[in-house]
Write a structure and sequence with these properties.
Shape: globular
CATH topology: Heme Oxygenase, Chain A
Distance between the termini: 47 Å
Oligomer: single chain
Helix content: over 70%
Number of helices: 11
Strand content: under 5%
CATH architecture: Up-down Bundle
GO biological process, one term: thiamine biosynthetic process
Pfam families: TENA_THI-4 (PF03070)
Number of domains: 1
GO cellular component, one term: cytosol
Order of helices and strands: HHHHHHHHHHH
Catalytic activity: 4-amino-5-aminomethyl-2-methylpyrimidine + H2O = 4-amino-5-hydroxymethyl-2-methylpyrimidine + NH4(+); thiamine + H2O = 5-(2-hydroxyethyl)-4-methylthiazole + 4-amino-5-hydroxymethyl-2-methylpyrimidine + H(+)
GO molecular function, one term: thiaminase activity
Largest sheet: none
């Protein structure tokens, strides 16, 4: 399985146009501390809890995308992504349990403002825009996490020995996971060609960059939990 190309095609254009917002996201202090194994546990707990709630809405967004696509192969690709998220939730719960967080505890947590801002933005794009706009709103998470995970895996500064977050990092080298990311990138390229992406780059770039900034805010939410706990 080859590594997805993050610097080519429509995705590469949108990623480049996001400029400093993209670097703020993929090299966020939360990410760097994950790699170093120095991220405070309360920050990771907060992230894990909100990520569970986030994934529920993310699944809804993929379900909405299925209804907007025109061909059966495209619908199959989006459905596979939806199923992957739904199937991931029990695994996420199991992983949370290893950190002392029960599913009941997670499910009853209120959504953070950052979670609501991000997920409702993506869903709003999905309800008001077409399949291409919704895909663009989804991609900073879909492909961005792969880029972050692969960078951590191959960065000499990353510490895996005795790093409590090593298993989280290693997940992003999984062949099936990377294949699913490549499938999403291919879907973006196909839908972009069908829907005149080149003539819509200004709007698409705004959507992509906004979602990227909301991703950064999601990382920061985890770090803010440490500050809040110290007060």
């Amino acid at each position: 399985m080859s590594t997805p190309r993050f610097d080519s095609g429509l995705y590469g254009q949108l990623r480049q146009q996001a400029g400093s917002a993209w670097q703020d996201y993929v090299a966020h202090p939360f990410v760097r501390q994950l790699g170093a194994g120095t991220l405070p546990a309360p920050a990771f707990h907060r992230y894990l809890t909100q990520d569970y709630l986030f994934l529920i809405h993310f699944a809804r967004a993929w379900a909405l995308l299925v209804s907007k696509l025109q061909t059966l192969p495209e619908m199959r690709t989006a459905t596979a992504a939806l199923n992957a998220i739904v199937n991931e939730l029990p695994l996420h719960v199991g992983y949370c349990a290893s950190w002392g967080l029960s599913e009941s505890e997670i499910a009853h947590q209120p959504e953070a403002a950052e979670t609501m801002n991000y997920t409702r933005y993506v869903l709003d794009i999905g309800h008001t825009g077409d399949a291409l706009e919704l895909l663009v709103a989804l991609m900073p998470c879909v492909a961005g996490y792969a880029e972050i995970g692969l960078h951590l895996l191959h960065d000499a500064a990353t510490v895996l020995e005795n790093n409590p977050y090593a298993s989280w990092i290693r997940n992003y080298g999984d062949r099936d996971y990377l294949a699913s990311v490549q499938a999403a990138l291919n879907l973006l390229e196909t839908v972009g060609q069908q829907s005149g992406a080149e003539s819509r780059l200004t709007r698409l770039s705004t959507i992509f960059t906004t979602a990227t900034r909301l991703e950064s805010a999601f990382w920061q939410m985890g770090l803010n939990a440490v500050t809040a706990g110290a007060q």
